[in-house]
Amino acid sequence: MTRDLNTGLQRGRGTGAYDYGMIAAFDGRLHKYINLSTNIGFIKKGDPRAEDMNLGPLCAGCGVIQGFGRSDRALDIPNELRAGIGFDFPVSQYLQFIAEVSSTHFVGSRTPTLLNNSPVSFIGGARIFPTRWLSISAAYQRHLNWYSDLDKVHGPTGFIAGLSIGHVNDRLEPVLPNQPPTVDLALGSVIKGSSDLLRDTATTVCAGDQVDLRATASDPDGDTLLYSWTSTGGRIVGDGTNTKFDTTGLAPGDYTVTVQVDDGCGCIAFDSKTIRVTNCPPLTVCFGPNLDVRADKSAVDAGEKVSFSTSGVTGGRNYGTARYEWSASAGMISGSGMSATLDTSNVTPGTTIEVTVKAMSEVGSCSASGSNRIRLNVPPPPPAKPMARELGQCTTFKKNNARVDNACKDVLKNSIVPALQADPGAKLVVDGYRADKEKPADLDMQRARNVRDRLADGNLGPAIDANRISVRPSGVSADGSQVKMWIVPTGADDPAGAASVDAGPVNAEKKAPARRRASKAKPKAQ
After folding, report:
1. How far is 178 from 191, CA to CA, in rounded Å?
2. Among positive and negative, which fits the CA dihedral 427, 433, 439, 440?
3. pTM of the predicted model, to two decimals?
4. 278 and 252 in contact (C-beta within 8 Å)?
5. Is the pLDDT of residue 525 over 60?
6. Are strands 469-476 and 427-434 parallel, antiparallel or unpaired?
7. Residue 330 class from Cβ within 10 Å (0-12 exposed, 13-18 middle, 19+ buried)?
8. Is 262 helix (H, G, I), strand (E, B) or coil?
9. pLDDT exceeds cutoff 60 at 478
């Protein structure tokens, strides 16, 4: 801008004031051989101050124009509304035709003697390109409406010529419009956060798992792509084309994972996948199938009690509480948990009892079992019951006579007495017999009683208690027996035969009187 005003404000002379404004331009190709250019804008003009307006050498001696009143303005310049439109026609790489119309429309107040007309001009011409770095221009300018009709000296219409030389860049292939990228999101394998969860399938996602994410993207223009990941819950681990979706802390439900790619040129693409997070129950691993069973005794007598115990299940997890049940093949088992007591009352001695404990899980149908055996002692057999045995017989009784002769006394002294002395608890059974024709009828009784009396009266040595001797009159002998003697040990039964009778008191043996003549002496029956 300038502060100098030469011969006035006509023919483009400046006012020396400050101007400001804005002009917008638009350009576009309408056709292969037609380009359109337009512009429109508004200029706010400044008014020059009187003391700064020097009219120049054409007005020598004029001095400085005085201002109008108190404003100090020498001129009132109107504002400008500018507009233009042009077409160029590139018919070849060497020739281009140009046509342009431009106008300046004055608006607002103004000094009455200045800028009466709003100028409009038309330019038509051509530009020749002998080579890419050289151009020659020629045009004709026709003013359709000039600033003032007062200037008759200077004509506004004429020809324009120009020459331009410059450096030009190498020709490049035309840049096609930017094309958007594409992207495809795929869900990969599930990385288990815990191996102790029950999953319906291999693709079931439990809270705490991670899911591999893979994005496959491409850009037709070959632009470098920027990846960004989002999710409606959880956490994206990693960046770029391969990431992971971490479900730690998520509640069961559906969550959406989205990948977006940006080509850096204003185009983006995205793809989404929904991942269902499940509240997976704990995975039950069963405990071992075998239980140890211990007994505090391995063999007992019938009626005793035996304590059993187990240390319980081993291994496994997430099976809840283990419940124990005890059973026995005989006897009565009682108890719960890991110990029990077996009562062997009323169980036959010699029986082997098997005690079994089973464990069952609260969750998962797990089971285990174990057993142990004990044997009931067999008591020693009772001693064989003693049997009565025959010690001897007296067979020398005379017919129809009950007297115990010397031969019978020898049997009593040498066999019967020592046997009874050897077993003080034993008793003696004496069976008396008679022959069919012998008399008297109680001869069998007399013979048996006399044998008792000889043992009890002490004449044969030590006297035998008569209470230890049973007398049994046995009637007529079928085999010629006269007296049979049986020793019956303690606990033994009497030998088979007649019933015992009360033989009365013991009668001592009577001595025979002295004989005068041995030839006349006769034995006296007892």
Report:
1. 39
2. positive
3. 0.41
4. yes
5. no
6. parallel
7. middle
8. strand
9. yes
